[in-house]
Amino acid sequence: MGKNLQVWLVAFAVVLIFFYGLDHLVMNMQGLPLNIDLTPSQ
Amino acid sequence: MKETRNFSSPILLSLLMIAVLGFLWSGDMAPTHWLPEAVASEVAAEEVATAEGADAAQELKLRPAPRPSREDYPDVGTSSRSIVWIIAQMHLFFGALVLAVPLFVLVIELLGKSTGDARYDDMAHEFMKISITAYSITALFGGTLALALFLLYPDLMAYLMQAFGAQMLVYAMLFFMESILLYIYYYGWDALRYGNAKWVHISLGLLLNGVGATLMVMANSWATFMMAPSGVNEVGAVIGNIWEVMKGPLWNPINLHRFIANIAFGGAVVGAYAAYKCLAARTAEDRAHYDWMGYTSNFIAILAFLPLPFAGYWLMAEIYAYSQQMGITAMGGILAWLFIVQAVLIGTILMAGNYYLWSGMSRTEGSKRYQGMIKYIAVVLVICFLIWVTPHTLILTSGEIAALGGSHHHLLGPLGIMPAKNIAVNLMLIFTFLSFQIYRRSDKVATVSWEKAGNALMVAIYVVAIANIIFAGVYYGYFTNTVYKVGASVTQVVSTLVVIISGVVIDAFMYRKAKTLPSFWGQVSNRSQYALFALPIAFTWLMALMGYVRSSVRTHWHVYTVMKDNSPDNFIPTIGYAGNMMTIVTVMFVLFVLFIFWIASLSNTKQAPPLPVTKKAGEAA
Q1: Which residues of B touch A23 (CB under 8 A)?
Q2: Minimal Cα–Cα distance from B551 to chain A, Å?
Q3: Residues B308, B264: contact at Cβ < 8 Å?
Q4: What's the confidence (pLDDT) of residue B59?
Q5: What is the pLDDT of residues B275-321, one digit of tens each?
Q6: Cβ contact B86:B581 at 8 Å
Q7: Exposed e or buried b for every residue in B558-580, given b needs 16+ CB within 10 A?
Q8: Does the pLDDT at position B32 exceed 50?
Q9: Alpha helices, DSSP H, located in B365-417
Q10: Which of B165, B195, B268, B390 could staple B415 via S-S, CB 3.0–4.6 A?
Q11: How does DSSP assign B122-173, residue by residue?
């Protein structure tokens, strides 16, 4: 795997995890918890 | 050439206002018809019945809000509301301008001090020249507004004086201080230019802005008290202290919204001044200077504009939280259509701002690396703009409803509701920031070793943020319940803010020691300068439009739920009538602004001295 590809994959992985956490955080702060698949908790 | 300016009008108006307010506050002009006597005594009796001892005596002093009848409103032969509407709107336009300009002037001055580049200082001084002329006009409209309100709505003003009391005197005195500080700040610019004296000047600028911001939030509290009164009981009697009266539920949302909007508006107006001077420039040096000034103004206007929709969203959310009925009046009833007009105007602002940035990229050869992206950005902006202006409910004839198969279009209907519009707005802001970012990168070549990783990270942030905004809008907007739909809009806003903040931070580090490519200021099309004229006109119209919405949500109340409006104008004006009023005030403002530009140019114009008179040959003999 080329170094360039690794850089891109790592960048996307880091950002995806960051936004996933951000979605949970922002919705939880409003009292709207999400399931792991980002569907609303019942 | 030494400039001379007439200081007298704002200072005299300040003194006049203090005198009028002091006189009125003394109670000499308190209305005698607050309530029909029977009602007043009934209210007082109820208050007494529920209080004990000393409290009862205190309660007796409470006066409910006045209930003026139609006859209590002076008839001046034309609509009082229209008179106040025009004057108030003009005062607000100029007030926004003169409060905003010193804010970014101070930042530019600090930038000049820290970089040692005299161009920043000169530019900041020139920006202030516009503000100082506008200040006199602001004061004149402010004084006229006060007189018009006391003449045309005496009961309302007397009630507001009762509610706010000495705060109004403090306001008048702060206005006095603002005048003094503004004149010292502007006319002391060259006297306090170097060394420690410069810090004295910057401190004066800080004080000026502190006083200006305080004036703004105090005036805001009057408007928000009328929309969502606090510190009063159910009949409008003042039961709280001044702080409780001021800090109503809508005060801080309005404060934030106006603070940001003023900066964007001020940047747009001084941008038009720079464009005017750039187009009129006779030397390449002048054209380069005003091109740079126009760029800086557009930078300020667009940067301040990017977070503005979020502040507006917060304000609307607080309006709904305070009164769902008021929220629905604004966004679900007659006024809902105005949000479509708002979309057209904001779309105009974003298109003009983007177009200016794209045109400005021609100043440097380095922009060729990014020019291929412009067409894609334009496509996204246009699609999002079209989604934003798609109405939900159409005004249709029965034949059209039959042809359509219902009141909503089966394909376009879903685009008329907030989730689609939230996606469109956020994407427009993100792509405007992208234009901004590639513009800033055009004349630079990064030299850091981690450039590829930094770019990969930036691209990933854009892609994931956009996907997150679309996912949140579509999934939570259309496939879950309303609570999640509203909640998910916050994640959309946060995603956009992440893009903007990370873009600024990454670029700041990546281009810290970058190689700079030559930029040729003045090498820009005239068309780009016309975009700078479009911005303040769209901003002005937008402020007039949303001012109409904000004020109309009170419906038939002077002060919502506690003081009814019984004047002949106690109804929400029709959209067509309001549209005419908005256009009138916008045209008036533009004419006044052109006058200011002319005055600002006139102060630099010198008449050529007359040639010496030569005697004729015959006269000499």
Answers
A1: 468, 472, 491
A2: 30
A3: yes
A4: 56
A5: 999 999 999 999 999 999 999 999 999 889 988 988 998 999 999 99
A6: yes
A7: bbbbbbbbbbebbebbeeeebbe
A8: no
A9: 374-388, 398-404
A10: B390
A11: HHHHHHHHHHHHHHHHHHHHHHHHHHHHHHH-HHHHHHHHHHHTTHHHHHHH
Residue of B112, B203, B450 whose CA lies nearest to A7: B450
- Across the interface, whether the CB atoms of B464 and A19 are under 8 A apart is answered yes
Q: Which residue from A minimizes the CA distance to B461?
A: A15
pLDDT for residue B392: 83
Of B456, B475, B494, the CB nearest to A11: B456
Categorize the per-residue pLDDT at B417 as very low, low, confident or very high, splitting at 50, 70 and 90: confident
Give the Cα separation of B203 and B209 in Å (integer): 10
CB contact under 8 Å between A38 and B475, yes or no, is yes
CA distance to B402, B429, B492, per residue, from B407 (Å): 9, 31, 30
List chain B domain ranges: 365-518
Predicted confidence at residue B18, as pLDDT, reads 55
CB-based contact A16 B494, cutoff 8 Å: no
Identify the band that residue B39 occupies on the pLDDT scale cut at 50, 70 and 90.
Answer: very low
**Residues of chain A with C-beta less than 8 angstroms from the C-beta of B468:** 19, 23
Residue in B453, B461, B483 closest to A32 by CB: B483
Contact residues, chain B, for A14 at CB < 8 Å = 457, 460
Highest mean pLDDT among B2-16, B18-32, B436-450: B436-450
- Kindly state the tokens that stand for B422: 């939230």
CB-CB under 8 Å, A27 with B468 = no
Contact criterion met (CB < 8 Å) for A12 and B465: no
Tell me the residues of A at the B interface, defined by beta carbons under 8 Å apart: 4, 7-8, 10-12, 14-16, 19, 22-23, 26-27, 30, 32, 38-40
Query: Which of A32, A35, A37 to mutate to test binding with chain B, by most B CBs within 10 Å of its CB?
Result: A32
Q: What is the pLDDT of residue B27?
A: 44
**Interstrand relation of B563-564 and B557-559 (parallel, antiparallel or unpaired):** antiparallel
> What's the 3-state SS for B536-554?
HHHHHHHHHHHHHHHHHCC
For residue range B174-228, what is the model confidence (pLDDT) as tens digits? 999 999 999 999 999 999 999 999 999 999 999 999 999 999 999 999 999 999 9
The residue extents of the domains of chain A are 1-30
Q: What is the ipTM of this complex?
A: 0.96
Cross-chain Cβ contact B464/A23 below 8 Å: no
